[in-house]
Amino acid sequence: MREINPADISAAVARMCVSANTLLPEDVRKKLEEGYQNETTEAGREIFRQLIENADLSFETKLPLCQDCGMAVFYVEMGEEAHVAGGINKAITEGMIAGYKDGFLRKSLCHPLTRKNTGDNTPAVIHVDHVPGDRVKVSYMAKGGGSENMSRVTMLSPSQGWEGIKKFVVQRVVEAGPNPCPPIILGIGIGGSFELAPKIAKKALLRKLDDTHPDPVIAALEAELLEAVNTLGIGPMGLGGSYTCLGVKIAMAPCHIASLPLAVNVQCHSARHEEAEF
What we know:
The chain has helices at residues 6-22, 26-38, 42-61, 88-102, 145-148, 161-176, 196-204, 216-230; strands at residues 2-4, 71-79, 82-84, 125-131, 136-143, 152-156, 184-191, 245-253, 260-267, 272-277. The longest helix is centred in the first third of the chain and has 20 residues, at 42-61. 39% of the residues lie in helices and 24% in strands. The mean pLDDT is 98. The protein contains eight helices and ten strands.
C-alpha cells in the first residue's frame, strides 16, 4: 500500500482552483482563435476578439476569467493500492477551501431554500472511481451556474435510438439559446442509469477540444452533432454566427434493455479545468 501525503493533495488542489480560474486551457484558446479567424459574422468575430482579450487580461492580472468561479467539481481516479490518511475527500475539500479563499474566487454555494451562502464554496462535488495501481489522479472543473442551468437529463425510449438522441440534444441547444454564454461545449452521456448518464456527460467535458474519440463510430457521432448544432445560427453570445458550439464530447455506458438514459451537460466557452497526479 502506497501512502500519499494528504497535504500534497490539498496544496495541489488549491493551486489548481486558482490557476484553472485564471488561465484558459490551451486547447480552448486555440478554438477561440480559430473562431476569430473563421466566424462568418462581424458580431461573432468581435465576440471572439473580446474573449481572447479577456483571457489575456486574466492571465496578466491573475483575476478570474469569469466572475462565476463555479461549483468545484472533482473527478478522482483512486488507485486501489494507494492510501490517503484522513481520506481523499477531506484532502480535496481542504485544498478547495484554501484555493477559493487565497485566490479571491467567488464562493457561490448556498442552501437550496434559504439561499444562505455556505461561505467557503463547500461542499465540493467529488466523484471517486477506484482503479488498479497505486496512483491518484485528481481532475478539477469549475462549473458555472449559467451553463449548468441549461443542462438536462432524460429517459428516452429505446426505440427513439440515435435520431431521438440527436433531436433532444439539438432542441436543448435551441432552448438554451444565449443563456450558457456560447460558443458552448457539449458533454453527452448516453446509457448507464438515471444518475450515471449525467456523471459521465460532465466528465466527458474534461477531454481536450482537439482530441478525437478513439472509437471511430463515436467520433463520427460527435462530428454529426457538432455540425447539427452549428447550423442553428445561434452564434457567439447568441448574436448569430457559425460558431454556436466549439466541441461535442460523448461518453457511453451499457444501459437497461427497457431504457435509454441521455444527459446533456452544457459548458460555457470558459471551460476551466486542470488535473494533477500523485
